[in-house]
Specification:
Aminoacid_DH-like_N_sf; 15 helices; Rossmann fold; single chain; five-stranded mixed sheet; seven-stranded mixed sheet; alpha/beta; 407 residues
Length: 407
């Protein structure tokens, strides 16, 4: 998907073949295998990866995921997307991504700590505040980031809070980081709603009720929207009259899942995506909107809270469906990396911001990036995704051209 998107944009921008090759291929790819002692006394081997896509604009930045489906190919694609995302919103970073192939839900806290510290130890020559700055992703959280920071700091002999972002506030994290992606999604939905002059209240369906999905839902409901559909890995729920978000959140915190929630009907997850709504937010994994689903969508705004939720084949269909406005993933879910950048800046300066300062700066950057996309889309008569990718890829290409090729 990432390569198909890049090839299409590179052709549109008429990038020279030399430049295409330089900015398409990951600059560094690390594959590691390491042992972890489990609670049973057994020693298990795990495979981990870290990909740094390019370093033309500054150190690389990107999440770490602990997931059984992690592969080097997946990590490379996510690093590429992160490159265009950082360039689009004006951050001084290249894209990176990392991960370990594991099932964190089946591991104890002690086992997770052992895995995190061994993985971090393998990464130490490749990461650092001026090299590569990891952050949380699927299967990881602020505790994982705290262990990574501590492992790195113990190795160099002094505290280095800027080596990771997404840490607890008590050890150099920033206020607002956990809510940043979801609040960014909700902010952009509100901006597009005003642009399209959609009457309220908005009817919203969210696929995925993790951090991004739940925060997006909370913010939109507070702004007057009606949540009519939501799903997680256990169930897809639908109630055309509306689902009480706060009751749903309480139920999820109590049971750990959405399945069995009494105030909505359960249905197939793909069927939920195709229900009538004003805003559809895929906030789970990649490739959930394929060409079959794209034909059946009945939303007005598609806000991509996840990375790569729409396949290239589906994109061709959606480009013909002018009634659907797409907020592309590299803009829509960029709130997380933007506030991660704020955290890194605060760590480097040892000067910390209020939550209001964080969110004001976030909204200013998102608003500026959206304006740039809308202008490029209008002037070049291309989709919002093509506009977003073109702006990001063009900036990286220009940086690579200016820096030249090292002999």
């Amino acid at each position: 998907m990432a390569c198909k998107q890049f090839d299409r944009v590179a052709q549109f921008l008429n990038l020279p073949e030399k430049t295409q090759a330089i900015i398409k291929w990951p600059q560094r790819s690390l594959s590691v295998t390491f042992p972890v002692k489990m609670d049973s006394g057994e020693v298990r081997m795990f495979s981990g990866y870290r990909v740094q896509h390019h370093l033309a604009l500054g150190p690389t930045k990107g999440g770490i995921r602990f997931d059984p489906d992690v592969t080097l190919g997946e990590i490379s694609a996510l690093a590429m997307w992160m490159s265009w995302k950082c360039a689009l919103v004006g951050l001084p970073f290249g894209g990176a991504k990392g991960g370990v192939c594991c099932q964190p839900a089946e591991m104890s806290k002690k086992e997770l700590e052992g895995l995190t510290r061994r993985y971090t130890q393998e990464l130490i020559p490749f990461i650092g505040p001026q090299k590569d700055i990891p952050a949380p992703d699927i299967g990881t959280d602020e505790q994982i980031m705290a262990w990574m920071m501590d492992t790195y700091s113990m190795q160099v002999g002094y505290p280095v809070p800027g080596v990771v972002t997404g840490k607890p506030v008590t050890i150099g994290g920033t206020l607002g980081r956990k809510e940043a992606t979801g609040k960014g999604v909700a902010f952009l939905v509100k901006k597009i709603t005003e642009l399209l002059k959609l009457p309220g209240p908005l009817r919203v369906i969210i696929q995925g009720f993790g951090n991004v999905g739940s925060v997006s839902a909370c913010q939109l409901v507070k702004d007057g929207a009606v949540l009519v559909g939501v799903s997680d890995s256990s169930a897809a729920l639908y109630n055309p009259k509306g689902i009480n978000y706060f009751q749903l959140l309480e139920y999820k915190e109590k049971t750990g899942r959405l399945a069995g929630f009494p105030e909505a009907d359960e249905m197939d997850g793909v069927e939920l995506l195709c229900q009538h709504c004003d805003v559809l937010i895929p906030a789970a994994k990649e490739r959930v909107i394929n060409e079959v689903v794209a034909e059946k969508l009945r939303c007005r705004i598609l806000a991509e809270g996840a990375n790569g939720p729409t396949t290239p084949e589906a994109d061709h269909i959606l480009e013909e469906r002018k009634e659907i406005f797409i907020i592309p993933d590299i803009l829509c879910n960029s709130g997380g990396v933007i506030v991660s950048y704020f955290e890194w800046v605060q760590d480097m300066q040892s000067y910390f911001w209020s939550e209001a300062e964080v969110f004001n700066a976030l909204c200013r950057i998102l608003s500026g990036a959206l304006d740039s996309i809308m202008q490029f889309s209008h002037e070049n008569k291309v989709s919002t995704r093509m506009a977003a990718l073109s702006l990001g890829i063009k900036k990286v290409a220009e940086a690579k051209e200016m820096r030249g090729v090292f002999p």
